[in-house]
Amino acid sequence: MTAPKDPAQNIAQSPTHLVHLEQRKQSGARLYSPTAGRNKGPIAQALAQHLPPNARVLEIASGTGEHGVAVCAARRDIIWMPSEIDTESRRSITDWASETNGQMHMPLALDMQNPDWPLDGSKTVLKADAIYNANMLHIAPIEAASGLAQGAARVLGEAGMLILYGPFLFAEKSAQSNLDFNERLKARNVLWGVRELELVKDIFAESSLALRETLAMPANNHCLIFTRRS
Ligand SMILES: C[S@@+](CC[C@H](N)C(=O)[O-])C[C@H]1O[C@@H](n2cnc3c(N)ncnc32)[C@H](O)[C@@H]1O
Questions:
Q1: What's the CATH number where 199 sits?
Q2: Which of 6, 52, 76, 120 is most buried when burial is the number of CB atoms within 10 A of its CB?
Q3: How confident is the model at residue 158 (pLDDT cuts 50, 70, 90)?
Q4: Number of domains in the chain
C-alpha cells in the first residue's frame, strides 16, 4: 500500500523563514516554480503598464527569479534588482539573470524581518523607483510586512511606487479559496496567514505609503499599488 502523501514534504523552510509551499523543478542552478510559471504572464502585463519609464525596480523575495525575467522581457527600458533571503533561490536568480542582457542584476540578500534593511550603518545604500513583492506577506510573520514598508520608505524616491502581488482578504467579500488557504496556512504556523487588505493598508500607511490602485488578477490574487502619501 502506498503511504499517504505528506503535505509537509512540499514545504521548504530554512532555519529562519519559509521559502516555498510547492515542489520546484530544477535544471542546474535554475529553479522553476509551477505557480510562477502560471502567473508570470499576467504579472508582467500588469507591471509593464504601471512601471514608470526607465524604472529601477527592486524586487523583494524574488524566489526562483522568473517574475523578473518576464517583466524585463515586457519592458526593455527597466533595470531589475532582485533580492532573496534564500541561498539556493539566489543561485537560481543569478542563472535566470544571464538571459536578460544585464537588465536583471545579481540578487541581493535582503531579510524583511531585519527592520534596518537596506541601511549600512546610518547610510541608505539602495535607491529604486519601484519596489515589487509577490507572495511573501502570507508566509512570513507580520513583522516582514512592517519591515518591507519601513525599508521601502527609505529606498523609494518621492515619486516611487510599491507593488504587492498575492492573495488578500477583503473582509466579508473575501474569496472562499483565500479563506481556505488562510486556514491551511494558520494550521501550519499561527504567524502566517492571508492578510486582510485593511491591515496591509494600515501597515504601509505608517510608512507614508498609500494604496492608489487595486488590480484584480487571475485565481483571486490582486496587485496593490502604493505611492507616497502627499
Ligand atoms: C512563496 S515564495 C514567493 C517567491 C516569488 N516572489 C514568487 O511569487 O514566485 C515566498 C518568498 O518569500 C521569501 N521570504 C520569506 N521570508 C522572508 C523574509 N523575512 N525576508 C525576505 N524574504 C522572505 C522566501 O525566501 C521566498 O522566496
A1: 3.40.50.150
A2: 52
A3: very high
A4: 1
Percent of the chain clearing pLDDT 90 (strictly above): 82
Cα–ligand 1 centroid distance for 79 (angstroms): 20
Other CB atoms within 10 Å distance of the CB of residue 217:
17
Q: Mind giving me the DSSP string for 169-193?
A: E-GGG--HHHHHHHHHHHHH-TT--
Domain of residue 120 covers 31-228
Q: Is the pLDDT of residue 14 over 80?
A: no
Asked if the structure places residue 46 within a domain, the reply is yes
Q: Is the CB of 135 under 6 A from ligand 1?
A: yes
Read off the pLDDT of residues 76-114 as tens digits, 9 standing for 90 and up. 999 999 999 999 999 999 999 999 999 999 999 999 999
